[in-house]
Amino acid sequence: MKNLIFILTTTILISLFSSCNKSTASEDDQPKNHTEENLRYQGPIIDMHMHAYDKSNPLFGEVTNPTTGDKYMGSKDVASHEKETADMMEKHNIVMTMISSGSHQVVKKWASMHPQKVIKGQIIINPNEINIDSLKLWHNKGELDIIGEVAPNYAGIKPDDNSLTPLFDLAEELEIPIAYHILPGGPPGGVYFAYPETRASQARPLLIEEHLVSHPKVKIYIMHAGWPFVDEMKALMYAHPQVYVDLGVISWVLEEKELHNFLNELVDAGFGKRIMFGSDQMTFTGKIETAINHVNSAPLTMEVKEDIFYNNAARFLDLSLETIRQHKGHKNHSE
Asked: The domain that contains 274 carries what CATH number?
């Protein structure tokens, strides 16, 4: 529980930093230009990065940025968070989503609320405190689809640490993916008041490489796309075809221009088929819409947008052709 509170407190600061730099009205932003490369994608979306909580979550209700005093509103309680997220999923045709939580029971609840839509994950902060047998049992009961989000940086554990080896061994044994969190981990300067064990130098994507080499069959996606280490991320993806990324919090916490520049670097390098959408919505459910709009406003072709919003995740998850046809029969793809 202590580790869960730790990461939840940290994620408050991520969102608060974003709110200090952008008006909450930005959640209704629409792409400004409708050129050939700025058409708005409206097909099915797979969100590879959402969260769910129990009633003790400190993100609910009004929270205050400790550095500025600015106030910010999340969902007021569990019921509101569930409804607001479901409404966003319906509004934006989110047909599947990866839900992770520090509570296994919460993930089970969401899976029961959204049959066939929830990809079940489990937040892991300190791998030394995880019961591998529990993870295996949950998977065998159909209650765990992805190991993650794995975020040991909050405990000061680097991606090359040997304590992660049992998680990769388990993923290999169960033939399920890993969702690995690197950066961002909060607002600038957060190491001094929120997560003292985290270091920016620990977030270099190439640090995870030996785990990949020793577990070549394990599918993995790097949450938040390894920002801001774009050169290392390109090198990692070039060397290891099993590595995908999701956009996570950078889809709304960054200025649009920075997000677009980062996206363009990965796409121009030839990795547009391995970028997946993720909103990292937490209780700030309006950020789902902001994230979608920021990707839609990027100077990318409709083909690349469709890949990011749906096709790449469908391939990563090995969805059946029947499931893909059902998803894509729901709505048109552009306006």
From this structure: 3.20.20.140
The residue range of the domain holding 212 is 45-328
Q: What is the mean pLDDT of residues 301-317?
A: 98
Dihedral sign computed on CA atoms, order 166, 168, 170, 172:
negative
Q: How many domains does the chain have?
A: 1
Q: Domain for residue 34, yes or no?
A: no
pLDDT tens, 161-217? Answer: 999 999 999 999 999 999 999 887 666 666 776 778 888 888 899 999 999 999 999
Residue 174 · residue 168 · CB < 8 Å: no
Q: Is 58 helix (H, G, I), strand (E, B) or coil?
A: coil
Peptide bond into 256 cis (omega under 30): no
Alpha helices in 43-196, H assignment, sequence order: 78-91, 104-113, 132-140, 165-174
Q: What is the pLDDT of residue 38?
A: 58
**Sheet of 178-181: strands edge to edge?**
147-150, 178-181, 220-223, 243-246, 275-276
Asked whether residue 8 is domain-assigned, the answer is no
Q: Output the six-digit token pair for 105.
A: 């029971």
Q: In what order do the strands lie in the sheet with 118-120?
A: 45-51, 94-100, 118-120
In a domain, 30, yes or no: no
In a domain, 78, yes or no: yes
